[in-house]
Protein 1
Amino acid sequence: MNPELAVETEVPGALALRRVGIDTYQENVAFLHRACPLYLTEGFLALARIEVRANGRSILATLNIVDDEAIVGEQEIGLSEPAFVRFRVAAGTPVQVEHATPPASLPALRRKIAGERLERADYLALMRDVAQHRYSAIELAAFVVSSGHFDLDREEVVFLTEAMVEAGRRLDWRERPVVDKHSIGGIAGNRTSMLIVPIVAAHGMLIPKTSSRAITSPAGTADTMECLANVELPFARMQEIVHELRGCLAWGGTADLAPADDVLIAVERPLSLDSPGQMVASILSKKIAAGSTHLVLDIPLGPSAKVRSMPEAQRLRKLFEFVADRLRLTLDVVITDGRQPVGSGIGPMLEARDVMRVLNSDPRAPADLRQKALRLAGRVIEFDADVRGGDGFAIAREILDSGRALAKMNAIIDAQGRRDFDPENPALARHAFVVEALRDGVVTSIDNERLVRLARLTGAPKVRGAGVDLFRKLGDSVRAGEPLYRAYAEYSSDLRFAREWARHASGYTIGDRFETREFAEF
Amino acid sequence: MNPELAVETEVPGALALRRVGIDTYQENVAFLHRACPLYLTEGFLALARIEVRANGRSILATLNIVDDEAIVGEQEIGLSEPAFVRFRVAAGTPVQVEHATPPASLPALRRKIAGERLERADYLALMRDVAQHRYSAIELAAFVVSSGHFDLDREEVVFLTEAMVEAGRRLDWRERPVVDKHSIGGIAGNRTSMLIVPIVAAHGMLIPKTSSRAITSPAGTADTMECLANVELPFARMQEIVHELRGCLAWGGTADLAPADDVLIAVERPLSLDSPGQMVASILSKKIAAGSTHLVLDIPLGPSAKVRSMPEAQRLRKLFEFVADRLRLTLDVVITDGRQPVGSGIGPMLEARDVMRVLNSDPRAPADLRQKALRLAGRVIEFDADVRGGDGFAIAREILDSGRALAKMNAIIDAQGRRDFDPENPALARHAFVVEALRDGVVTSIDNERLVRLARLTGAPKVRGAGVDLFRKLGDSVRAGEPLYRAYAEYSSDLRFAREWARHASGYTIGDRFETREFAEF
């Protein structure tokens, strides 16, 4: 026993970095071999948070201990694929490994979990740490659940939104206005963006639209546009196209906008959490980060949409307006008819077909999709200082009917990289089944949620040609045996499961009379 | 496009099971290669929950996609180490893989996240799914945070406790009473169990004590006992010892008691969550599952303990009593002096030394440890119907002073498997530093939390000989330069960091006068 200070100076341990080919999605995971000397001496626990450093860069990760040299060797530290990519240090580089200093914002996270109200500085620090992947999935889950329970007040939503913008890149298009349109979603089809962008760009306004891929829906705008053109553009290329054509329809992933939003969504999704505060912060942060100055927001309202009552829609609208106002984003909220899907197709190929039919003024084009797109495009056009209030719709309609919108879409498609698409014969999945009406009557309700789920079961959006094609909409008369919709699937296992599921409940209700309560819009 | 029902019958895909040597602790993780045909067709998303089945067994896991054939091949499905062990199916067996049916209790989990009160049946279903690892870390985090926010009422705590017992094994020792003692923890040292068990067993009562290893403290009872004897006994051997000697001091991990508790603790710990309801359910479920009929519960109270005010201690006591009553466990709660560590040593070897000194009636034995152990052992002995209320202490003292407790401890050590331990020369870590008083005066406060943290930094409990040896306690006079405590560490990196940390704040306050407010116990 050596009671005094005989301190040997040991050379601090460095381990060689190894890339481990495991996709851990939004989480950073590190791997140490159980026999690694550093593991033995440092007292790391299972699931400890550690910090890995080299070349002035650092990354936090959750530690997994490994017993297999084929995965990581005793003198190595492994990083899972997303962590390795984020770290941006070459494999084989000697790195330092130590216990992670807790994120600077951890006290603020703990206070939110304890139910306290947080200040602007707290949110800035929190979102910075969230965007840098400094929190584990468990900590993030605790945060989002607490934010839901204690109902962020509207000031907190402003702070959260601002912080999410600050913690990532913010685009500046160097002109005004920069316009955009967004739907909160929750109804199937509804592919209006792919019509609004060419219409508004043809009018001459700047509309650099980036969109996401679907997370829980059967098709996102990026998935649908990908049937017609490339969407994964390098950011510089996207800027060129926007400057040349006034608009684009690209995937937003390359631009690193509001990355904290993506991290939080990865945790909210498995918990089916979507509180108003989180929804507002998520949507507005992405739009502000994308450089938008003016936004039209579509809130579909209906018994199977995200928002199910007018009072709820109004509360959400007020919250959006309050936050947008404080962050100097000009916002126009439109509450729309969400009682049924908009359009005929649900699924990327089917929706791309509908969009091209509208642009081509094809008589088979879904009238509701055309009408809604014109209405919303008109509201966007009214952000133009030279356009009289109320004239937007007519301008949009003229642009569409004259073929200028089609020409603009073709220019965008060519610039992004045209893909083979034949609107007469879109590449649909090879198996199909039809669901028929079981009685005479009229269609009295259509359940968005069931149809969305059915389209997911058929394989959309991963299988682009899968989905559901609707033949009848609300208020249509049907006779027993007539087809209501056809579902397409590529794999017979998907088809079988989807057909069983639809047999159980098709999503359609046939009744005697449909009260065509006009949907009063605000 | 094949519009009708040309369904090919495909042979359902089976993959070969592969053991992947990654320790994912409480979570089950599965690995599929990105090119695996099943991954491509089934539409699994990153982090999807899947179910793996074979031989009538099934397991749920979170899916990670892999790009490295060395980890898992295209026709294989990998399971992380703990998942593979839980699944109990041989590597190479063909298994079925599909989307996980959501756990049956998921609606109840969602309701708790939404803030609702749950019923008995809800908790039974929930804990069953928790114990079977059917929930992801994210879902569990949401559950524990929500249980904390909405303050489970006392009935819910009863339901939760009961459900945690039901979802695991329950021992029956086939006699009454079966006694036990537990401390809620939060103060350093306090190694009373290792004195109470031999005393009570020598008296003739059945005290089959299983203990845990430390999670956040510098030593658990299992870690400390392991300095003297084996603690990881096969369950059958543990039963034999208990029947022969009336007691044991074993590690509880082999008995599979209240497994849901371990799953929840793994999530609560990183979040530093420990609400009263969760604490009561955790402790009482383990004791009831272990077959205890009578329990003495020690609640230390002090400014740096877990419980910091008498009203808080009383509330906690009432909750323990209510739940124990409803579950027919006889409970005696003792609120004890938690203003400083109990004993001299903090860390496994140092605490084992203290325990053996008390059993040997060594004059160097810490008086506070001896006194507290006798008091609590006396309360346990008073569960004996033949013992008069108040006589327990004297009986315990006689057993200790006569050497019967030492003889019993030696018998238990021999039965479990004696280890080399010399109380005159315990195997302490090789480096040390001393912290001295900076002024003359008396010790007016000792911060448990700082000392616990310091002991962890020295490497306890993983390094058994590491820790802190206290020379002065509350109220003791000191002169400037006199040693307050000595810290032991094995690795110079630990020593360096610990010494820096202690230099910053030693945990001791020296003042002019110590108000020896007698700690009034209830």
Protein 2
Amino acid sequence: MTSNDSCKSEHLIDANQLALVLEKFATDRNWSQFHSPKNLVMALTGEVGELSEIFQWMSEADSINAGQNLATAQDVKDELADVLLYLVRLASVLRVDLNEAVTNKIKANELKYPVASSLGVSTKYNKK
Amino acid sequence: MTSNDSCKSEHLIDANQLALVLEKFATDRNWSQFHSPKNLVMALTGEVGELSEIFQWMSEADSINAGQNLATAQDVKDELADVLLYLVRLASVLRVDLNEAVTNKIKANELKYPVASSLGVSTKYNKK
Amino acid sequence: MTSNDSCKSEHLIDANQLALVLEKFATDRNWSQFHSPKNLVMALTGEVGELSEIFQWMSEADSINAGQNLATAQDVKDELADVLLYLVRLASVLRVDLNEAVTNKIKANELKYPVASSLGVSTKYNKK
Amino acid sequence: MTSNDSCKSEHLIDANQLALVLEKFATDRNWSQFHSPKNLVMALTGEVGELSEIFQWMSEADSINAGQNLATAQDVKDELADVLLYLVRLASVLRVDLNEAVTNKIKANELKYPVASSLGVSTKYNKK
């Protein structure tokens, strides 16, 4: 068993190194003072808005092939990264274990959306 | 060196297992038909909106201590998980390597925001 | 000329009465203390997220006919109203004249997107 | 009684002229094809994201005085206008009467948040 296999077997997601790098990035620039959860949620909102702007005039079919245009593909990578950076930083300042949070949420979703009754039904999926 | 150390040393983030679980979750329910990038960006927007609602009337100081209220702490974990689930699913359908994307973005940010000129300056940080 | 015509001829939009009603609504409940622009932008984000959730799994074609389902039509009216209420309240606390702001923005857009070069081109429209 | 008074007395909000101008703007450029409700909600999301970016690193106190910086004041006017333009266009393509929608919503909010039990309580206000 390689270390990579064992790593994957231990976590659905492991963002610990990223969280440490982002904390150092903020500390080095004395930016931690700006990184309240409230502010980070607004920064996350801004980046999701930029992601939305990439796809707003695309058809669903075009959005599936967005990566075929090199400039669009790079924009997508950059915005997905920005959203992820703020999300991991936000979880870090809130002391939330993202792996635990998603593991529990997926278990809850499996109970909420049984395969039989959810098959191909987006409306059920859509319910809060 | 443990496999865990080596895992962490290889990636800033490893979401591969989560991406596989989410793909199976969607495939089992025949939901892949709904998971166009355009739709997933809208679903991501909805979850970020729910995250924003948790913090909208809090002061920054209160947002830092949001975890001290058990009900709020659970809401925060659930919404952070929902945002992460849609983000990882979106990257997966777009065939974007999140670890590569964030690694490149952090390198770019280090050049864009030199420590000396960025020290404690949020306005610079705020610039697009 | 009726007063209604003259009203319309004077403004692209007149939200003054709504702004006054919202200010009284907040003052009566001692909610003005919560209505900082920062907080109201987060509340606006939450409502746009709820609007997005209505349409996230719909095709574009279905979104055009969303009003044909009575329950969906009511949800759409409610969320459009919530977004508008927070937007008008936000402009009010920031002392922004919405009619002046949109009038100037439309003039700028007419220069930015000349008919000849913009005809049927969403990419140009999409550029910041 | 001036026509302006009578105008205000008839509507909480009158955006009919703006809706007509936006429809002509889109028709002249053959952009109506892009203006499905689904796409317009994404465009609205993008503009709210830009609005959020203006305030993300501000304290609440600074956000109240955002208009004192001329450059920030202009950015705020432009983004509030962009959000309003897409909101009115969205209501227009969905055939929603915004004045009726907000009038009904305010009546519902008056029942949902009685003055006595809502006084200074943001948590109640925050409940869905």
